Amino acid sequence: MTATNANTSPPAWSITGLFWDQGRPRWVASRPGQADRPLHLDPGTTVRLGLAAPRGCVGRWDNERGRRHVCASTIDASGTDAQCADCAARDRGRLLARDAYTDERTYMLYLAWFGPGLVKVGLTAAERGRGRLLEQGALAYTLLGRGPLSAVRAAERAIAATDHAVERLRLDRKLAALTTPRALTDGPTILEGARASIANAGLLDLLDPIEATVHSNTHAFGLSEPLPQTYDALTGVQAPAGLVLRLQSVVGRVLIGVQAHPDRPLVVDTRLLAGYPLTAPPDHATGLHLQTRTPPSGEHDHDRTDQIPLF
Questions:
Q1: 73 and 35 share a domain?
Q2: Where is this region: Disordered (predicted)?
Q3: Which of 283, 276, 285, 287 is nearest to 6 (CA)?
Q4: Which domain holds residue 259?
Q5: Of 186, 202, 220, which one is at a domain's C-terminal end?
Q6: N or C: lower Cβ tally within 10 Å for the chain?
Q7: What ranges in 161-245 are assigned the alpha helix state H?
Q8: Does a structural domain hold residue 98?
C-alpha cells in the first residue's frame, strides 16, 4: 500500500483513524471540503506512510450532519489521543462512556475474548453490528442481549461486578495475550461458559434475548498464529517521519507486520499516527520511536530510538 497518492498541497490530507466497515479495516485520510479516502490495508502489501508536522486534531463525528466535524486545532504530538479538548468534550463516544449522553437507539451487550484471563463486557449501538468488536481487537465475542441504553448499561455494570468480565482492558495486556497460542483457540469455550453463568444468575433478565452464538474475528484480522514473543512496538513519532511495514495482519486498530531494516516484527498502534499530515511515501523508516517488548513481564524493554534515524 502507498498511502500518499493524495494531494498534499494545503490543506493537507491527514490520517484521522482506523475504522472497520463491513468486516474490513479502513485507514481513513481526511481533508477539509472533500470526502474521506480509505487507505487499504491488505495483508502481504507494504505500507509506506510519510508524516509531517504539526499534528492536528482529527475532529469529531457530527451526528446531526452525518459527517466528520473538521477541526483546525493543533495537538500534543505524543500519545494516542488525537482530539483537542473541545472536540473530546463533545465526542459522542466519550460522552457515552461518562454516562453524559443518552439516546433512543437500541444497544447490544456483549462478552469479548482477548486472550487467557481477558474477558471484557461492553455495549455497542445495535446499528454498528460487529464493528466495535473488530475495532477493539476482540478475538471472539458473543452477544448477550439487546435493549435500551439504560437497561444494557445496568446489565453491563452488574456483570462487571462479578468475576466473569471487566469493563476495560489496556492495549498492552491485549498484545501480551496475543503471544500465547491459547488466545486463538480457547475463546469460544470460555465465552460459552461465562454466558451460561451470567444468564443463570439472572443478570440478563431485563434484556431482549439474542441467539447464544460465539463469533470469531481471527479470520477478519488475518491472524493464523500468535504474535511473536519478542517484537518492536511503536511508542511515538518525531515528524517528519516515515513508516515502512510489510503488513501481516490488522487486529483492532493495531498493525502487525515486519520491518524492512532490520527484519523484525513490528506492532503499530495506529492511534499514535492519527492527526499527522501526509507527505510523500518514504523509502525507509524515519522518525519512529520503537521499544522492544518481550511479554509478559516487560522487564527487558529497552528504547531503540537510536537505531532508527530521526531525520
A1: yes
A2: 283-311
A3: 276
A4: 11-82+227-294
A5: 220
A6: C
A7: 171-178, 187-200, 218-221
A8: no
- The answer to whether residue 302 sits within a structural domain is no
For 88, how many CA atoms within 13 A lie in the half-sphere containing its CB? 10
pTM: 0.89
Residues facing 38 on adjacent strands = 28
Residues 192, 137 share a domain: yes
Count of domains for the chain: 2
Asked if 136 and 205 sit in the same domain, the reply is yes
Calpha distance 241→108 (Å, rounded): 40
Residue 277's nearest CA partner among 72, 79, 88, 24 is: 72
Contact at 8 Å (CB) between 70 and 64? Answer: no
* Whole-angstrom distance, CA of residue 251 vs CA of residue 268: 10
Whether 212 and 250 share a structural domain: no
Instruction: Give residue-wise pLDDT tens across range 195-253.
Output: 999 999 999 999 999 989 999 999 999 999 999 999 999 999 999 999 999 999 999 99
List pLDDT tens digits, range 259-286.
Answer: 977 789 999 999 999 999 999 999 889 9
Q: In this structure, is residue 150 part of a structural domain?
A: yes
Q: Are strands 140-148 and 208-209 parallel, antiparallel or unpaired?
A: antiparallel
User: Distance (Å, rounded) from C-alpha 107 to C-alpha 54?
Assistant: 38
Give the model confidence (pLDDT) of 69-80 as tens digits. Answer: 778 899 988 889
Give the whole-number percent of the chain exceeding pLDDT 90: 71
